[in-house]
Amino acid sequence: MSKQSQITLPRPSFAQLPVDPKGPLGNAWGLWGPNDQLGMLNLLTADNVAAAAKEIKTGVRFSLDWPLTKPSFPSFGRNPCEHKLVNRGGRCVNDDVLNFNTQCSSQWDGFRHYGFQKERRYYNGATQQDLENSEVIGMHCE
């Protein structure tokens, strides 16, 4: 984005991190408040998206993802993507049904995927128990 269209919020320099001394080196836990679940995604505001759209000149796009069926054998014992085409009652209507692990192919990571191992904490200090008993920092299906 150009300097004109960039919308910024005050943020500490890297040297001023960690925000939370219980987190990993260079963490920003707490930067957006104690109950934040978005991290830097907080910058993805309607104003910032509109400003970024004004920067488009050619419309050329580059996909950074990978097909859900790749790799054929995902690592660490994860199951590959399953795809079924389900015809709806003999009509000219089909559903695509997908069953896939968010860690195979292009990763659809949430903040609960990989935590700070030393303290056994996830983003903003969430514990494993916090994750198992709530939707905290989860990938919501709303």
Would you write up a description of this structure?
Helix content is 9%, strand content 8%. It is built from 2 helices and 2 strands; from the N terminus they run H-E-E-H. It has a two-stranded antiparallel sheet. It has a domain at 66-105. The protein has helices spanning 46-53, 128-132; strands spanning 82-87, 94-99. Strand 1 and strand 2 form a beta hairpin.
Features:
142 residues; little secondary structure; two-stranded antiparallel sheet; extended; disordered N terminus
Put the structure in a nutshell:
The chain has 2 helices and 2 strands.
What are the SSEs and their pairings?
Elements: H1 46-53, E1 82-87, E2 94-99, H2 128-132
Antiparallel strand pairs: 1-2
Share in helix: under 10%
Strand order of the largest sheet: 1-2
Number of helices: 2
Q: Report the structural category.
A: little secondary structure
Terminal residue distance: 31 Å
Question: What's the gyration radius in Å?
Answer: 20 Å
Major β-sheet profile? 2 strands, antiparallel
H/E order of the elements? HEEH
* CA-based shape: extended
